[in-house]
Every structure is written in C-alpha cells, then in structure tokens.
Amino acid sequence: MGRKSEVPLFCCSMSTRAAVSLSCLILALGGCDGGGVTPGVDAGPPAPGEDAGPVIPPTGPTYYGQIRPLIVDNCSMCHTPEGIAPFSLETYEQAFEVGERMMEVTHDRIMPPFLADASGDCQTFANDRTLTDDEIAMIARWVETGMQEGDPMTPMPEAPPLLRLPRTDLTLQMPDTYNVDTSENDDYRCFVVEMDTTENTFVTGYEVMPGNTQRVHHVIVYNPVDEAAAQEARDLDTAEGGTGTGYTCFGGPRVSAPPMVLWAPGAGATTFPRGTGVQLEAGRAQVVQVHYNNLVLDGVPETDRTSIELMTSSTASQAYLVPFTHGGIELPPRMESVTQSTTQSLSMLPVPLRAWGMFPHMHTLGRQLRVELEGATNECLIDVPRWDFNWQLAYWFDNPVRVSPSDSISISCTYNTMERDETVRWGDGTQDEMCLSFVYLTL
C-alpha cells in the first residue's frame, strides 16, 4: 500500500472522509492534546449573529482543483459508468474510495496503460499516454494530505476529444452479434471478416468502434499473408461452431497473419506515418481478434458487434510488418525470473529502411521485453519494463529509426514461471509463451 498520512491514529485515520481530514491534520500538528481551541479552527458552528471568522483554504491539492482535471485528461475514457474500467472516477466520492490505489498504480506507471519506457532512455513515442513526474507527484500529495475535496462549484474541465479519422473508406464489421462467453474472466475471440474489395489498396489509418464499451478490452485486426492463411482462419471458425461465430484465439490468430490494427480503449483513431500504408489484397478476408473482459460486470449486456473503420489510399509507400522473434524459448518451471535472448541479422533487407513503430508481444508469464538495434550505432528500439498481456499496444516513434542490412536486432524477454510445473515453450495456446515484436518498416 502507499504511504499514509502521519496523523496519529487516536486523532483520526485515513478512512475518514476528506471533510474532516484537514481538521485532523491541524490537530495532529498542534499535538492532538485536545486542550483549548486550535488557532484558526472554530470550536463549533457560530452562535446566531456571531461572525463565522475567516474560511481556511485547503493546504494541499484538492480533487476539484487539481485531481479532477488529471482524471478527465487521462482516465475518463475508461473510468466512467459506461467504460471498460471496473469502476468510475467521475465523482469525488469514487476517487476518494480508491485514492491510495491511484497513488500506487500511477507511481508504478501501471496506469494510464502505456507499457513502454517513454522517458527517452530508450525512445519517445508519438502516442505516449503516460503521466509526467509532476502529475504523479500531485496525486501522491493529494493522498498524503488527506484527499481533500476542494470547491464542488469548480467548473467541470472539458475532456480532450479523441482523435478521429479524416474519412472512412472501408468498414470491417463482425459477421454477426456475438454472445460473449462470460464463464471466463477473459474471452479471446477471432472473427473472420470477408472483404468484397475488387482492387488492392493500402490501409493508412483506422478507428475501432466497440459494440460493447464495457466488455471490449482490446481489438487487433490480423492481415493474412496469403489466401491459404485466410482459408485456415475460415476453417477454424467453421470447426468451432459455424461461420460467423468466431473461434478461440488466446495468443494470436493461429494462422500466419501479422497485425494491422491494434486498439485499446481511449486510443481514438490511428493514422500510419504520412504516405505509408499496409497493403490490403483484393478480397482477402481479415481476422478480427476481440478481447472481452468480464470482471465485475454484473448486469452489463453480454453481446457485441464491433466494427473497424479504415482509411485507405490507392498509392502509398508500402509498410512491412516484420516479426523479430525468439521462437526457441524454453522456460524451466518454478523460476521467479528467467530471461531468454536472441540476435537476428537484418541481411534479408534489400536496402536500408526506416522503422516507425513497434508491436511487442508475450503471454501471461512475460515480465519484461527489450529490443535493441546493433550496428554502426547501437540504439534501443523498445523497452517494456513491466509487461501486461492485457494491454496489447502499438508504439509509434516520435522520429523514425534508420535500419540497414548490415545491422542486427536483439530481442530479450524475461518471464516468471513460478506457477508452472513443466517446461514452457513457444506456442499460440494459453499455456504457451511467445517472445516477439513486429516492426513497422518502410522505404
């Protein structure tokens, strides 16, 4: 737990409401001896006609003054009554109940969810959603000074608008309404979406429209590498219940298909680097993976039909989503920390290319992932110090990184296998693991 106020327990505790926290703090600073009246604090309400005296302003951050604006800017896209988060932060009372937990998860940079180190020690990212050090310190000070409420009449700050696509040229939609499997805390489902396009095109941006905002935790669209891979996905769909109902896909699509769309709540629209795009073959079916989170959702609708809007162009610099993997991982059981690493040459590249972003991936045993470029100059491409399988995100560099056929890339993944009794190896299944990162490359 986070640090508590040093107010003596016989005066008050952190479980009291913020309305009395200031009084408790003043009593504590005065020695809490109960003798006389603390200067500047009334002994009680004034008698009729008596001057009430000066109003003492809060001595630290308040919810309405400093904390609510942070929540609106960084948390309100999920922590609302209709959002994916398990609780809302719309009111002072709701924030007060989880104040200490807010301090912990922001200090540890678990929330807002952005797994990569964005400090500049490795890279900085155009889609960075982390809090600044000052903002994290503000939340800590609010908790440590009693989670004071402030003035409820403070105007509500305006939420920043989510990014929107300039236009929509194609729409991917789940074939039918899906009945979420609520028997599990997490339901990972892949849906085959047929495309009636007659010409090749390039996807240059996307925006996900979740059909059930309280259950859809993330969406990934996988682009099959050829028609055979697309047919494999159709066969998996048919084998598990019939066309349109989807198939179980915990670790990935279970066919050869790199990701094209990665979305999590609050992301808004994503546009690929200017002038670049992922090629979409005419008539090629796409595989849409949806992660449904079923924790603490009694009474929430159990159906979904999510859609994805695509912006396309007939011409673009073709992007290549190249996977760098350690497919030979062997993780012994009952290990608190085990790291596996490998280095791969980039000699397969025909010419020097530009790397624009990273798509790291491990499963639930993963704890850390790091990818480095080794060559004329050594450079960290991505460092994920605290991996969380529940947040599958794309990370777009502020500035592209030049990679050359003479370079190599090393990838290192760390796991905790304490819960396993047998060796864990590479695989798509729930009990398997992965160590990989796709790189978005263009000329």
Q: Can you describe this structure in just a few lines?
A:
The chain has 443 residues and is of the alpha+beta class. It has helices spanning 18-29, 63-74, 92-97, 99-107, 133-144, 227-239, and strands at residues 170-173, 178-179, 186-193, 201-209, 216-222, 247-248, 259-263, 270-271, 276-280, 286-293, 303-304, 307-313, 317-318, 320-325, 330-331, 338-345, 353-361, 366-374, 379-384, 395-403, 408-415, 424-425, 436-442.
Describe it:
The protein is of the alpha+beta class and 443 residues long. It has three domains: 18-144, no CATH class; 170-318, Sandwich (Jelly Rolls), CATH 2.60.120; 320-442, Jelly Rolls (Sandwich). Helix content is 14%, strand content 29%. It contains six helices and 23 strands. The protein has helices at 18-29, 63-74, 92-97, 99-107, 133-144, 227-239, and strands spanning 170-173, 178-179, 186-193, 201-209, 216-222, 247-248, 259-263, 270-271, 276-280, 286-293, 303-304, 307-313, 317-318, 320-325, 330-331, 338-345, 353-361, 366-374, 379-384, 395-403, 408-415, 424-425, 436-442. Strands 1, 4, 8, 9, 12 and 13 form a six-stranded mixed beta sheet that branches. Helix 4 (99-107) runs antiparallel to helix 5. The longest helix has 13 residues, at 227-239. The two termini are 49 Å apart.
What secondary-structure arrangement, pairings included, does this model have?
Elements lengths: L17 H12 L33 H12 L17 H6 L1 H9 L25 H12 L25 E4 L4 E2 L6 E8 L7 E9 L6 E7 L4 H13 L7 E2 L10 E5 L6 E2 L4 E5 L5 E8 L9 E2 L2 E7 L3 E2 L1 E6 L4 E2 L6 E8 L7 E9 L4 E9 L4 E6 L10 E9 L4 E8 L8 E2 L10 E7 L1
Parallel strand pairs: 9-13
Antiparallel strand pairs: 1-12, 2-11, 3-6, 3-10, 4-8, 4-9, 4-12, 5-7, 5-10, 14-23, 15-22, 16-21, 17-20, 17-23, 18-19, 18-21
Helix pairs in contact: 2-5, 4-5
